[in-house]
Amino acid sequence: MKRLQTLALEQKEDARHGDATFPIQKYITSLKPDYPVITTHWHEEAEFTLITEGDASYQIDLTSYAVEKDDLIFIPPLLLHSVSRGQSTLYQSETYVFHMNFLGGNATDICSTRYLMPLTNEELSVPCLIRPTHPAYVSLRKIFAQISSLFANPVEGYELAIKALLLQVIFLLLQNRTPDGKRSVDTANASEKLKTVLDYIHLHYAEPLTVAGLAAQCYFSEYYFMRFFKKHMNMTVVEYLNNLRLEKAVELFEQGNTSILEVSLATGFHNLSYFHKVFKRKFHMTPREFLKKLSSF
Hints:
By secondary structure, this protein is an alpha+beta fold. The protein contains ten helices and nine strands.
């Protein structure tokens, strides 16, 4: 059954990017008025992205970046990140998601211990946004084009070439990292607090959740927690929780569950009328209309 386009809200991605022997995957991302955002998430892999159309706002490790066509983005492993469509009608990007172990991140040589592992463990900071005016841009753009070409035309040995090219990306970024090369303590602490509460929501979304209970996960007051969450997630905690629950409801519908009441209860909506209201607000159709559309595919 064809999946309708919806927001991916799993904040710590469990998806495998590529396979165990070649852990790299290409993705094309499109953001439109009816699909305007990829919410905050993180994963063990790094990302190398080219903006191919439009403009957007990236938030990476709690820092905001305005990006536009031809900009390059590099996101190291484990960093929180999200993308929101800008003023353009269509935003599109091409991304390569890869595990650092593919480059030798789990080895014991000097390349791993001095560079790859510290980058993986958030002990080194490298530039995330590389604009055309950046000193490494021309070289990185050429590398991106080579990776893209190899994915489109996988000649014999292309895996070796891609591995070498990604190592070159790391080398060029390290030449342009900040002087101290480390994240601030405040950023690291805030990021860990946010990951803690997102993990908790992800595990308990089907249960009754309160702002007070979520604030307690971070040892924050309710007032401070609501401000903290809105600042870093660009939405309230209630909006985030509703979106996550709605995504889970869509998954259940797509898996063949046709009882609207059962799906509502299974995803934490204990008021059926409210479930109908927020579902229609998000997807511009009722749950029953959604089921009917699914059955037509």
